[in-house]
């Protein structure tokens, strides 16, 4: 009897009913109970904190700029005295919003430079790190072997 549902996430409803119907009052084993929360792997890695902060700031500034542009447009349609100052401030806000988006891009580039290339299977940084690691391991193994040979050979030379 298959106790997994079609997505492989625990017992299906008919299987759970038959398990409890077979032995009334018996507890359903832990493996057969359907979990309340199922962890699924993320499609993408989480953004670094500094990049995420810059992105949130950029989204807030952009949304305020869009709201301000709509208000400026409506004031222009209504021929209000507030239209001209709103249009001027909308132009300024657009410059600031562009700066905020560039800040996200620059912050991401700086983070990548400081913390290495984003780990991709074909990443050259990963390959270089692997080569350096294997070279260090080989050097350590050679030193250990040399020290072992010296320890063993030192006693033989003194006896001769």
Q: What is the terminal-to-terminal distance?
A: 77 Å
Point out poorly predicted stretches: none
List how many beta strands DSSP finds.
0
Alpha carbon gyration radius: 33 Å
Order of helices and strands: HHHH
Description:
- The protein is mainly alpha-helical.
- It is 68% helix and 0% strand.
- The protein has 4 helices and no strands.
- It is flat.
- The model has no long low-confidence stretch (mean pLDDT 80).
How are the SSEs placed, and which strands pair?
Elements: H1 13-22, H2 49-77, H3 83-115, H4 124-159
Kindly list the characteristics that best describe this protein:
mainly alpha; 4 helices
Short description:
With 160 residues, this protein is an all-alpha fold. The chain has helices at 13-22, 49-77, 83-115, 124-159. It has four helices and no strands.
